[in-house]
Amino acid sequence: MADIEDLRAGLVSQLEKLEKEIGRLDSKDPVSRNKSIKKLNDFVKEVESDLKQYETEVLSVSVKQAQKYQESLKQLNAKYENLKKSFEQKKIAGTDRERLFRGIKKMDDRDPSEMQTEEVIQRLKETQENDIEALLGIQGHVERFNEMADNINAQLDDQIRKLDQVNAIAKDTESELKRTQRFIRQFLRNIYTDKILICLIVLIFIAIVTLLILNITGITKKLSNNVDVVTKSNNNSSNSSSSGTNSGGSSNTNTGKRFLNYGNSNNQVQVIKMLGEFIMSILI
User: Closest Cα to residue 24, out of 16, 36, 35, 34?
Assistant: First the structure.
């Protein structure tokens, strides 16, 4: 843990030093500038190596400990990349400026009055060619920067397109969830409606069966009353008959009543049984 802290502190100090040295390049003469650029090239490589070592150390610790240094590593990498780009731009600007004024410096080494006309013209042509070369170099750098900007814009457009796709997917998902919720509510409403209808049908059916049972019971009682009337009339008309005959008629009459009553009760049991089976089939 102490090694990681030391590496982080050292990188912070190195990046601050690198930033200061890059800022001083503009104030130096060409000779000192070139020397400083060479030293800074080595220093940039050293900082990059230390950054990689720091990243390796962060990845080697546990996940819980690594989370503490992830943000620090990200900030150090970002600062290093910015300083590196700034340093490259300084080098390009210094090289172009050196090329631009190279011909003029050569020309200033001698007094123009000591030169022949043709020699002056030749030097001017060389200076012009150097200037054109420097301008073409600057134009090439500008084109490269424009290409980099176009690539960055393309990447940004691609990211925006992906974000739009994610947003569209999220909206579609939200719409599907709302539609599903609506279907579930409709399904539950239909279930409740079906249950109510089933209950009503069962109640109506029970009422109808009850009425039928009452009607059947009433008809049976009427038949029993008719049998009693017929039996009494037969008894009155056959008073002179023997006791054996009377007892036989009474026995037959009682047998008929029991048969009717048995038929009545049996029908009721069958109807109630059928009703129970029907209700159970509906509920199941």
Answer: 36
Nearest to 14 by CA among 55, 38, 45, 35: 45
Residue 69 near residue 58 (C-beta atoms within 8 A): yes
DSSP 238: T
141 exposure class (CB count in 10 Å sphere: 0-12, 13-18, 19+): middle
Please give the tally of structural domains in the chain.
Answer: 2
- Choosing from 100, 125, 145, the residue where a domain stops is 100
> Of the residues 100, 127, 143, which one is the last residue of a structural domain?
100
d(CA 117, CA 51): 59
Q: What is the pTM of this model?
A: 0.36
**Closest among 75, 83, 79, 82 to 58, alpha carbons compared:** 75
Torsion angle of alpha carbons 112, 113, 117, 119, nearest 10°?
Answer: -40
Among 264, 271, 262, 265, CA closest to 210: 271
Domain that holds residue 58: 2-100
Q: Is 241 left (phi over 0), alpha (psi -120 to 50) or beta?
A: beta
Secondary structure (DSSP) of 7-34: HHHHHHHHHHHHHHHHHTGGGS-HHHHH
Per-residue pLDDT reduced to its tens digit, 131-171: 787 888 788 778 888 888 888 888 888 889 888 888 888 88
Is the alpha carbon torsion for 138, 139, 140, 141 positive or negative? Answer: positive
Q: Which amino acid is at 115?
A: M
